[in-house]
Amino acid sequence: MATKALSAGQQREIISRIVGQVDWDSLDGEYLQKKVISLPPKEFGRQFTDFLRYGCQFIFNNPRPKELALVDSYIFQDKNWKVWKGPVDGDGLSGEEDIDWRSLAIDKIEAHKLIIADCLLEGEKVIAAEEIRLRLRKSKILIPLGFKAFQYLWLDYQADRGGSILEWLYRTKGIRHLNFMGTIFYTNHSGGIGSGSRIMPYFLRQPDYYSGLWEVSDEWMGCDFGSDRPTACYQA
User: Fold this and answer.
1) Which of 18, 60, 182, 188 stands the most exposed, by the fewest C-beta atoms within 10 Å?
2) Do 214 and 171 contact (CB within 8 A), yes or no?
3) In angstroms, what CA-CA distances link 9 with 21, 22, 195?
């Protein structure tokens, strides 16, 4: 939900500015009749609410290529995430970090070059998360994005919500879930040594009727995913 509801005074201020400050004489009445005035009330309300929610910005084209830089500090301090070390069936505490190292070589993200992959083969409706990870690590075509990209996309969204890559993916492709298999994490909810779980981070966009905002979460790698839970990738 919104962090602070719009006051009655703010509502009146916005209405007053729309009535008095829009250059109505410069607008095409025929075009607006077709595209705006003829919209059903509920759809008009949804679109105009989005317009205000994102600071009176709309996304008309792909966002410009944005440099993808390593973040100096770990920005998700509230998450108990550490990179998983060692084999899938190990304790996660020692060995090689579970990272697709190819993802670290990507130095910028261009929205139109993102590949949203579910990794399903013909006839499959769902697939185990670990199998998705395995298929992507072996792929010579796709590179699953990892935590470097995950942090950047979140910072991009915080700084430029309506113009962010995440929001562009939702508006142009209908993406509401986005998994990141390039980095697998260890988390320990029970506190016992060696009792940690393998998890991967993902983004979730709440429905417009709730908040319409993207959120950060994580998922146990023991889950199964279908086409509604794709993974963010780049071409190898």
Assistant:
1) 60
2) no
3) 17, 19, 54
Residue pLDDT, tens place only, 99-145: 999 998 988 888 888 999 999 999 999 999 999 999 999 999 999 99
Contact 150, 179 (CB under 8 A): no
Cα separation, 194 vs 229, whole angstroms: 29
Q: Is this model's pTM higher than 0.90 or not?
A: no
Give CA–CA dist 106/94, Å, rounded: 26
